[in-house]
Design goal:
Four copies of one chain form a homotetramer. By secondary structure, chain A is an alpha/beta fold. Chain A has two domains: 4-144 and 330-349, Rossmann fold, CATH 3.40.50.720; 145-323, Dihydrodipicolinate Reductase, domain 2 (2-Layer Sandwich), CATH 3.30.360. The first copy, chain A, is 30% helix and 22% strand. In chain A, strands 3-2-1-4-5-6 form a six-stranded parallel beta sheet, sandwiched between helices. In chain A, α1 packs across α12 (326-342) and α6 (145-161) runs parallel beside α8. Chain A is globular and about 60 Å long. Chains in contact: A-B, A-C, A-D, B-C, B-D, C-D. Chains A and B meet through β7, β10, β11 and α11 of A and β7, β10, β11 and α11 of B.
């Protein structure tokens, strides 16, 4: 099988780099083009990038000449790691030119005809693409990094008991702020109790993701959500304390833990290459999950849950951890592409 | 005026050291005796201690010979920084021998006749001492470090509107774990989502502190509380996100902010030497309070509040910061002693 | 006595903020004007600044309207915290207009007629000002933050034994990089083994500072120096391992430790308000000095030395710590101004 | 081929855990027995250990019952991660009982008949085993974590130009201190400029490792070494600044860089399973190597070098990074075992 050529928009930033790292050796996709701002365009990628990944930059990738982010790219499948300042217009432009754009940017997440996808949670929302009308291409979006962990964790609980209220407090890693991102003077030995725009994303995105597609549009889920977002001096891995109130009462902690451990989604059924064996892993030990220790579970694609216990104010409370640049960004985006390919959705955009 | 001689129990530990640092140059109290475990007893303090405070150890203190923690101490006022493994029995013993013990340990906090005091919040609970019967001496306790910030912050709100529910998630500094305390491998670039025993303290102590003394005993406040406690790589300053539901509804955010800024307690009225000008300080900027920047406000005795806003699940949510080893431990304990002196309670224990 | 009005150039940056913090309540100097880039000019300082100091911003300072960095300022004494991109020309301009500029920027440090001063080390170099010809005003410079610690530490040794070789490896705090400065992704749980331009400064500045003024110009000291500079995840305090080879051999470690402990400079003799009692403090304990614990000694103006021992390659090796934004920047600059005032040098520039 | 059964002594500590992690799926060795102190013996490993590795603990390993560290173990090949307090006697005991003990402990490193091995550097020192007389078994030792990086880095330079002087300053990760190891209060936002015993190890071990085996004993290399060791808030990866003086002068930087990049040792020639493709990797970028980014190169088995440049005091200076728990401990120990197997040395101890 010939690999599908992919292009990465915003390839020099930290999410762009993570796409490159995760696509290395991918069985279906091949990095064919790297596009970035005018400042980088024309240079070899190795000269344009300040590579901050932990694995060495592949020699072949190093020698790719960076292109500008304009239609004219040969790859029909584009992963967008564009900054939200430019992503809105550029992604529309590419979609109108027939490209399949799967984006990590926030700009199109709430467009009524754009799916906002966690493959294990709402793969059926991809049907919304039939309603999409960009003139040939399409846009699919990836939720915010802090949203993905919480929503994946409550998905099996929601299926069984109906989540009515969700209260989340996050402790988010600095890699979520990109590069150069959070200044060290702000975060070494410190906490920032505010991340601009983050709480709004966490209070709205889950409603769309957990909503129902009625053949025409997505009807938002009816969940009351409050989010409080903090930045902590951790490199990778967003830790979140969650409290939930259910419509139907579970019989106890074990029923929920079983639901977590047994949860499998479409990517597991389809055995997608980027799908972790288990999208959710429950850890029994009292002091888990911890971002530095557990965020790499399932190659960073498993969401890890711990400390599930009764709550005096809600029904249950627990701790959720997800790798914010893998499951929370590039990894989830690639998994969306794999899902689209396997479900036969991708083919039409590849011509 | 001759200064009152004080002894410090558990003087070599990190809280003991903080007592020494804060009592340096105190106008009323003079460090007269330092007591510690048998391992340190007999040594000069400077040789027995691994001094980890930021200010140099006073030469005079350095030369004090450490005593054992046994009655026989000449100082009648004792600040206890004892480990909870030994504090229970030892403090009882000292009280029975007529000493006034003000303790940072958890052991006696829930004894029905032992006051649990934040001077600005429940100074009237000191009347409980009249019911106490240790044969001459007394025990007064200091709340847990994570409790003090939250309770002080909600006190003026509770006075005005009646707090019905309190939901707290903490991000606690490593100095709260003592020395050697939290291993660096557990916390550098990491979060520990569990602190043994901490959530239980936070869910029960506020009920006693905010309770009513009816002349006989303290009637616990009726507040539903949930606490989730995390350790973060911060040196000093516990940050807490708090959500509250009131019995009576405030007219808006400003009414609460005014209540916070105008709050003064008994220590301010009595102009106690260790009282901060303002026990609560509200900061307007969007990303405050931060532990590294703001925990030293009011010499570590002011609790700092920020980000007060409406909440979709409770009525309001906000961020609280308090210096855990000053207001949350040694500083609050010393303020209790100052309060007892100024109210004429201390005199009887000094003979 | 009326206070001398001072202006701060580059007042909104992190060094500018440190000037404001240190000048609060200064007995001789009064912050009269704050100047910054066009972006901030015209705004109230409280609105223009992202205040990152640990003490609250003074209300009076908050309300000062920021001016542009152009002659027209009324204050004749200016502390420059300008970025090196603009400091060169601007400082010259101000000096030509008659101002006394004491600068933290690197630009004029090697001008042959500009003194590079550590008040305890080479106060006599201020005589160079008589050779300076900016048309009425003057420029005096402050050494680089990493230079000041090492040079102050070796000064008494150099006086007694003649330093022939100096080998330094630094572990520098992030506050030395300004704000936003070092990205958190680069330094949380990491080391950066390179600081652009830093090694060159450390290998050349000591030669001028320890040089002789022969009535005409400064003759560089003859010391062979090698510097290796690293950035570490520390907020304040540059730690440096130093190795020295002497012309004359000391009789042993104690002779050097005595020299360190007995060292006093002109600021101590003149009893300047910003002078620490001891410019150098030697700590005996095996694991000192440590930046988080000891960099505040002498209000951040004492350089702390420890672990002095024999070296198999040089004569002796030891560890030096200095507070990089106080002794290494704003504090040293203010001390220069105090020295100039007390020696009667400042008066002529104030008219 | 049947796998060789191995036992791990001190299996619950952090180095013990790293052995388990690295031996997972090993083609030649199979973890058969885990031994630890009396406190853990008799428990299932999963219950006895506080697992702090980043990958999940294997289910099979979890269920192994921990044994005491006494002869009676069936595995004839033992990896020792014993604490130095007990390693000396215990390892001797096992060797006398016929076991092949490859140890990470410091106790036997300077026994004249015990090889101290970095497989790429001095594999020929294994011949010393023929002189060893423990009554059937043997002891081979692994150098200290901070020694391995520096010695591997200078090995190809030493071969070509003869190292005469080596000056090293280390910035060592906290994982080198074991668990619980370094207290967080000592290292969060701080530097410890002292590691007990470390400098002595670094100043002596290289002499033995780089020495010549003359058929009878090892003649120490004649290199003058000075080491200064610091602990920094980094999880994994010791960074070291090194300065070297050569007997023969290289023609320039490039000759040394080529020597580094072309260096291959016995493990590469034998294609051992744990051997990295390149034991030394030179990085060109100005700010490399960095512990968080580069310590995993070659699966933690490559030593990474950067910033090689001329030095004003020695001939050249550069930065060395090595993964202290992989190449600096468990990984190197396993590589020694692989080397012994492939060279036919191991067989005689397996019966």
């Amino acid at each position: 099988m010939e690999k599908i050529k992919v292009g990465i928009l915003g390839a020099t930033g930290s999410v762009g780099q993570k796409f490159i790292e995760l696509l290395s050796g991918h069985p279906w996709f091949e990095i064919y083009e790297l596009a970035a701002s005018a400042k980088s365009a024309g240079k070899k990628y190795g000269d344009a990038v300040n590579w901050i990944m932990n694995s060495p930059l592949d020699e072949k990738i190093k020698n790719i000449t960076v292109k500008v982010c304009e239609p004219g790219l040969e790859s029909r499948l584009l992963f967008s790691a564009l900054d939200s300042k430019v992503a809105g217009e550029l992604e529309t432009y590419f979609a109108q030119e027939g490209y399949c754009v799967i984006s990590n940017a926030r700009n199109h997440r709430f467009d009524p005809d754009v799916p906002l996808i966690i493959p294990e949670v709402n793969s059926e929302h991809l049907e919304l693409l039939e309603k999409q009308n960009f003139g040939g291409g399409c846009i699919v979006t990836n939720p915010n990094c802090s949203t993905i962990g919480a929503v994946t964790a409550i998905k099996p609980m929601d299926d069984l008991f109906g989540v009515e209220e969700l209260n989340v407090v996050t402790m988010q890693a600095v890699s979520g702020g990109g590069y150069p991102g959070v200044p060290s003077l702000d975060i070494v030995g410190n906490i920032l109790p505010f991340i601009p725009g983050e709480e709004e994303k966490m209070e709205t995105e889950p409603l769309k993701i957990l909503g129902d597609f009625n053949g025409e549009k997505i009807i938002d889920a009816k969940i009351k959500i409050s989010a409080q977002c903090n930045r902590v001096p951790v490199i990778d891995g967003h830790t979140e304390t969650a409290q939930v109130k259910f419509k139907k009462k579970p019989r106890g902690v074990n029923e929920l833990i079983d639901a977590i451990n047994n949860f499998r989604g479409e990517p597991q059924k389809l055995n997608l290459p980027g799908a972790p064996e288990r999208p959710l892993i429950y850890l029994d030990q009292p002091n888990a999950p911890q971002p530095r220790i557990h965020s790499g579970y399932g190659n960073g694609m498993s969401v890890v849950v711990g400390r599930l216990r009764e709550c005096g104010l809600f029904d249950y409370k627990f701790v959720v951890l997800s790798h914010n640049t893998v499951r929370g960004a590039a990894g989830n985006t690639i998994l969306i592409a794999e899902l689209m390919k396997e479900k036969g959705i991708l083919a039409k955009y590849l011509k």
